[in-house]
């Protein structure tokens, strides 16, 4: 028995007319009659009473009709579900992200993705880059949003840039550099400042990269303190203890007493990357990953 036999029987049972059923199925009437008769022979029961004037369901035919509808409905649902999964429209993703993404890029990406793929279940976890790499390796995460790059060689991971942001200097409100007429700040003008930075545990790549940028600008930064929380850094700045440099995401944090000034070119932007296991290319969640990464790139591109 094949699904087409069930569809043939369903058409005849609902039309109670072989001619109309054949037209509905885009078949000639004689082959349809033959297929229904073969179905009855395979089942060993008569499903239809027919003569030259009428077609009627037998008791067995009525029961078989109800089950045919259920089987075909379930089959259609299964086909639709499989196709939607293949298009990345259903499934689930476990996503990690660095804290700096939570201020702008990530909510915008999640909002856009949710609008397009409402049936995909997303679970989110804030982690630093090192924690995300461990979670990806242990398959606790499907996708990680890390800052700048990976803190160590990870041949089992794929990575792609999804966003880039300007770096900003966070200055005390009364700092003389705030009164400069230009809208951007050359990094070299911070040469004599006291720097407060994120901890190297939470920013294993950002801090060394930032120090190299300062060296390229002609000075060795005077790093007074490293701390875990960006909000704590900004509190030090607001109190006048020193300055810090952060991705522009953090300028969205309302911090009384702090003024954010974009760093002038040629200081590069800070890149956010999506990372996932290479083996995910053969994983059933890959279509969902592909769609999510595409949305992330699109949203990040619009925000530049």
What do you see in this structure?
By secondary structure, the chain is of the alpha/beta class. It has helices at 3-15, 18-25, 29-43, 59-86, 105-116, 129-137, 206-216, 230-238, 286-303; strands spanning 48-50, 55-57, 91-97, 120-126, 143-147, 157-165, 167-172, 194-198, 222-227, 244-247, 258-262, 270-277. The protein is built from 9 helices and 12 strands. The protein is rod-shaped and about 105 Å long.
Count of domain modules: 3
Mean pLDDT: 86
Any idea what the CATH superfamily of the largest domain is called? Periplasmic binding protein-like II
Principal-axis shape equals: rod-shaped
Beta-strand segment tally: 12
Q: What's the CATH C level of the largest domain?
A: Alpha Beta
CATH fold-level assignment of the largest domain = D-Maltodextrin-Binding Protein, domain 2
From N to C, what is the helix and strand string?
A: HHHEEHEHEHEEEEHEHEEEH
Present the secondary structure layout:
Layout: H1 3-15, H2 18-25, H3 29-43, E1 48-50, E2 55-57, H4 59-86, E3 91-97, H5 105-116, E4 120-126, H6 129-137, E5 143-147, E6 157-165, E7 167-172, E8 194-198, H7 206-216, E9 222-227, H8 230-238, E10 244-247, E11 258-262, E12 270-277, H9 286-303
Parallel strand pairs: 3-4, 3-5, 8-9
Antiparallel strand pairs: 1-2, 5-12, 6-12, 7-10, 7-11
Helix pairs in contact: 1-2, 1-3, 1-4, 5-9
Main features:
304 residues, D-Maltodextrin-Binding Protein, domain 2, Arc Repressor Mutant, subunit A, alpha/beta
């Amino acid at each position: 028995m094949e699904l087409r036999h069930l569809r043939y029987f369903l058409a005849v049972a609902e039309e109670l007319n072989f001619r109309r059923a054949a037209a509905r199925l885009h078949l000639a009437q004689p082959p349809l009659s033959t297929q229904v008769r073969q179905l009855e022979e395979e089942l060993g029961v008569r499903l239809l009473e027919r003569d030259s004037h009428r077609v009627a369901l037998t008791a067995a035919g009525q029961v078989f009709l109800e089950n045919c509808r259920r089987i075909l409905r379930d089959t259609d649902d299964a086909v639709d579900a499989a196709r939607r999964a293949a298009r990345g429209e259903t499934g689930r993703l476990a996503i990690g992200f660095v804290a700096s993404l939570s201020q702008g890029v990530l909510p915008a990406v999640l909002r856009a993705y949710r609008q397009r793929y409402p049936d995909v279940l997303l679970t989110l976890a804030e982690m630093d880059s090192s924690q995300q790499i461990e979670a990806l390796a242990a398959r606790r995460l499907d996708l990680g949003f890390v800052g700048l790059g990976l803190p160590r060689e990870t041949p089992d991971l794929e990575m792609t840039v999804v966003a880039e942001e300007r770096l900003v200097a966070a200055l005390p409100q009364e700092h003389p550099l705030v009164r400069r007429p230009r809208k951007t700040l050359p990094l070299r003008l911070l040469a004599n400042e006291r720097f407060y930075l994120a901890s190297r545990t939470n920013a294993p790549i950002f801090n060394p990269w930032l120090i190299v940028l300062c060296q390229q600008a002609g000075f060795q930064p005077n790093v007074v303190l490293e701390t875990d929380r960006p909000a704590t850094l900004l509190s030090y700045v607001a109190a006048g203890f020193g300055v810090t440099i952060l991705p522009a995401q953090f300028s969205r944090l309302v911090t009384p007493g702090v003024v954010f000034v974009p760093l002038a070119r040629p200081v590069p932007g800070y890149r956010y990357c999506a990372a996932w296991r290479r083996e995910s290319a053969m994983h059933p969640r890959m279509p969902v990953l592909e769609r999510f990464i595409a949305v992330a790139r699109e949203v990040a591109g619009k925000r530049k």
